[in-house]
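To close the chapter, one final illustration. This time we ask the reader to focus less on the individual chains and more on the assembly as a whole: which components sit near each other, and how the overall shape emerges from the parts.
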Amino acid sequence: MGDVVLMQGNEACVEGALAAGMRLYAGYPITPSTEIAELCALRLPQEGGKFIQMEDEIASIACAIGASVAGVKAMTATSGPGFSLKQENLGYAVLAEIPLVVVDVQRMGPSTGMPTSPSQGDMMMARWGTHGDHPVIALCPSSVKEAFDLTVRAFNLSEKFRTPVLLMMDEIIGHLREGMSVPDPEEIAIIDRPTVKYPDPKRLPYHMKKGQLVPEMAPFGMGQRYNITGLIHDESGFPTNSVEESEKMINRLMHKISDNYNYIKDIVTTNLDDADTAIFCYGGTARAVQSAVEMAREKGYKVGIFRPRTVWPFPENELLKAASKLKRIIVAEHNYGQMVLEVERVVKDNCKIDFVGKWNGSVITPAEILAKIEEA
Amino acid sequence: MVNTADVKPKTRQMSNLIYKYMRPEHLPHIWCPGCGNGIIMRDVAQAIENLGLSRNNTIIVSGIGCSSRAAGYLDFNTIHTTHGRAIAFATGIKLANPTLEVIVIAGDGDISAIGGNHLIHAARRNIGITVIVMNNNIYGMTGGQYSPTTPKGALGTTAPYGNLDRPFDIAGLAYGAGASFAARGSAFHVQQTINIIQEGIRHKGFSLIDVASVCPTYYGRKNKKGSAVDMLKWQRDNMIPAEKAATMDPVDLRGKLVVGILHQTQYKEFTYAYEQLIKRLYEEREANE
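The assembled structure is written out below.
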C-alpha cells in the first residue's frame, strides 16, 4: 500500500483506470463528471496514453470503442444527459463485444435537471437504456477507495467478458474527498481480453469452442482481417437474417453474463446475522445508511445493511436468501423508486418492503432513514 | 433494392481487384443495378493497389446506409459502425494506433446530416484519416428520402412537393471546417477519382473526397433523370476540372460538377502532435530525474 492521500471520487476513478491499463480516454465536459476528463487530460500523456476531448457525448463513446477495437483499453465518462446520448453506441459495444468502461456520475434529472445535485436516477437507464434485449454489468462505489477498486474491476470485467461495463457513480461519491491509499501496482490483479495469439486467416472472429462464451477477436492491425458490425451476425462476423443464428447470438450474449454471475456478483453485508431489518442501498446513499444503522443499533434495533457493489446483474439469489431471515427490507436510494422495483420483484411477499427516497436534489439524511426504521 | 442474387458474377469479366481486395464470398453486393457505389468501391481498391498499402494495416470504417455496406465487401479490417459515427470510431482507431491507415467510406446523409458534427470536428482536428463520400443525393437504404445534398426543388419521398432545403457542398463544408485536403470525384470520372483518392490517402492529415455517385433507383426515377447511363452522361457533360473552376465566376459553376483537388495544405496531423506531446513529457521527466 502506498501513502494515504486525500482524493476525490472522480480522481480515484482515473487513478484506478490508469492502474487497470486504460490508455485512451475520450470525453466531453459535463458536470459532475468533468474532473475525470480533466485528470485524464493531465495524466494519460504522462503514462504514454492518449486523451481526446471529442465534439459530443456520442463521439466520445464511439471514439473509445474505436480505440478498443485497435486493442487499447479505453474509457469514457459522463453524467445523466450524456449517458442518455451514449445509449445507442453502448448497445453497439454489447453486440459487437468490444471491451469498454463507461462511467456515469449521476446527477438529478430528467433533462438538464439539477446538474450539481446528487441522484441515483439513472439506475434503470443503465439496465434498459439501449434498445433491444441485452445483458448489463454495472458497479456502484460507496467510497473514494471503492471508486478506485471498482474502476479496476470494471476494466477487468469488461476485458474478461468483452462487454461494456458501467461504473454507476453518483455526485456524492464523485465529488467526495477522503483519504485513501493507492495500492502498489503489484497488488492489483489485471485481466486482459481474450485474443488470438497469432493471425490465422481461416479463423472466424466470433468462433466459439463448445462451452465457450467469449470470442477471441484480434486487435485491428494484428493481421487477422475480419468484419465487425452492429447487425446481428454469425461466427464469421458478417450479418445474418437467420432466425437460428440470431437467437443463438442473443442467447450467448445473455449467458455470457448470467452463467458467470457468481464471478461478477459483489455484495457487502453489514450486521445481518442477528438483524430482523435490512437496509438495501448502493453508491453514495450507503454513507447515510451506515450512520443510521449505527444510531438504530444504539437504540436497540436489529438492523443490518445489504449493499450490492455489482448492481447489474441484480443479486437475486443473495437477496432472496437474506430476505428469508428478515421481517423487513428498507430500500434507500436517491430517486423516486428504481431499484426498489427489483427488490419487490425478487423478494415478493417474503418480507415487508419499505422505501426511503429523495428526488429533490438534496441528500437523504441518517435521521430520515432512522425515522423509517423506527416507524415499524 | 433489386435482388441481384440471380446474376452470376463469375460469368462476367472480373477485375483482379476483386480477388485481391474484396471478399468474393460476400458478393454480389446489395447495390441496385446502375448504382454508382460499386464503381467508387472499385476506385478505392485501385487506389489502394496503386499505393501498395498493406491489407493488414488498412482499416475500413463505415456507418449506416447503402455506401456503408462497402466495408463488408472489402477484405481489410473492416468495421460497420452506427449511423453517422464512422468518423468518431475512426478517430479512436487512429489515435490508438497511428501506424494504421484508416479509411472511412460513408454516404451523404451519414456523413453530413447525422454525422455532420464529427465531420467538421475531424476536419478541424486534422486527424490523419481519409473520408470517401459516396454522394448519391438521397437516402437510398430507407427508400428515397431527401438528404442534405438533395438539390433545392428536387423530389424525394419526404419531399413530395420539392425539397425546400438548400444542399450542402460536402467538400466545401470540410474545407470550411479546416480540412487540409478536400476534393471531389465522380462515378463517371474513374481515372481522376482513383488519382484523387490516392492523393487523399497519401496526404498527412484529414482528407475528404466527395465522390458524386448516382442513384437511378430512387433519386433518378423520382426526378426523371433517366437511366443510370443518362445520369453518368450528365456527370461527363457537366464536369469542370478544379483548376479551370478556380478561374471561373462562381455563378457560371452553378449546376456544374467540379472535379479535382479543391484544396490542399499542410499542417500538423493530430496523432503526430499527440505523440510529440508524449515524447516531450517523457523527456522532461527524464531530465528532472
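Confidence is low (pLDDT under 50) at residues 1-12 of chain B. The two ends of chain B are 65 Å apart (CA to CA). With these observations in hand, you are ready for the problems at the end of the chapter.
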